[in-house]
Amino acid sequence: MTRTAVVLLSGGLDSATVLAIARSEGFEIVALSFRYGQRHEAEIVAAQEIAKRAGVRRHEIVDIDLGVFGGSALTSDVAVPKGRSASEMSQGIPVTYVPARNTIFLSYALALAEVSGASDIYIGVNALDYSGYPDCRPEYIEAFERMANLATKAGVEGRPLTIQAPLMHQSKGEIIARGMQLGVDYAQTLSCYDPVAGGAACGECDACQLRLKGFAEAGVRDPVRYREQATAR
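Below the sequence we write its predicted structure tokens.
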């Protein structure tokens, strides 16, 4: 019997890897992406291409507007931090944190899982190479899974849902190496918080710096296009 999984697909490096992992584990994929008021549409285009090339049978793109609340450089006019060092990125919660974003996304994924008969939800959160986001921690994912199985018909009827976060304890370099083994084409992905016109990554935001660091650790060149020659700090 084919198992179904919902995969949260942002169009970034981590979510593309998670999609490949779910496929390798035998799941039929239902992908879920969001237009949530983020700065650019490019990541949605990337998600669509990744899903298409992976042969995903169903890809839902949901429109919500977290920009109504603001509070983040990704959903308001607040400037995206650039050129921060690794030590600066490791201190505090950055202004690119979007309030409650993963909770909102996982809640939608939970509803989609119920109606599509999915037993698992995959999310590309990471507790090692991350920029201080509270909703990327293992204790958060564990708590959401407990809540999910209290709050759903499937959970109450003895068909528990599992929240899978297979990248949680891996470095960016390890994630990239694993994805390459699974055939992920990272040229399709977009990680940049603030890409320039034409889709080139800025090379200076936290997401670009973490990505470049990961490719350097993996010993391979990042195939995406940057605004200028960028290197890991």
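Residues 3-184 form a domain with the Rossmann fold fold (CATH 3.40.50.620).
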